[in-house]
Specification:
Layout: H1 3-17, H2 34-48, H3 60-74, H4 82-86, H5 90-107, H6 111-116, H7 122-135, H8 144-152
């Protein structure tokens, strides 16, 4: 799959979730941390049954550290590059967003978000399904290479 199309698919997924107040046009608009912070907070509220809830709005540094802790716990083989993420490295943002999509739909199974995915265009749903099929066999042993291969269909994306 073309990495540009995958980025567009991630943007469409983010927008359809309704987690943000306004739609985004590009992944680099996630730099304020609102989407990831709210998504992590949503999962935490559901798993803690309302106890020990994350703040509703974390700043971007707090989100980065919460994300780092989440990834270390859920996906210990994923070598999260905190500096690259904070520097808005496009690859790291794509990997993290892809991993959150996977987690949301197949590990955490957030039914409210999964239902909203029916609103995505069919071709986006198909691309996401193909991504899941490539990542699912890895369980929680997901690395950047696994994600890149899943996104690039055997690692053969132009310019990626």
């Amino acid at each position: 799959m073309d990495v540009t199309y995958w980025k567009e698919s991630l943007v469409k997924w983010i927008n359809v979730t309704g987690i943000l107040d306004e739609d985004i046009l590009e992944l680099n608009q996630l730099n304020d941390g609102k989407f990831i912070g709210r998504l992590l907070g949503l999962w935490r509220r559901k798993s803690d049954h309302g106890k020990g809830i994350c703040k509703d709005e974390m700043n971007s540094i707090e989100v980065a550290h919460a994300l780092q802790a989440f990834l270390k716990h859920e996906y210990p083989d994923y070598e999260f590059d905190l500096d690259a993420y904070q520097d808005q490295n496009e690859d790291e943002i794509i990997y993290v967003t892809s991993l959150l999509l996977f987690h949301c739909c197949l590990r955490k199974t957030d039914h409210s978000i999964i239902q909203k995915m029916n609103e995505l265009p069919d071709e986006v749903q198909i691309v996401i399904k193909m991504f899941f099929e490539r990542v699912l066999p890895e369980g929680n042993c997901i690395t950047q290479k696994v994600l890149k291969d899943a996104i690039c269909k055997e690692g053969r994306c132009q310019g990626y």
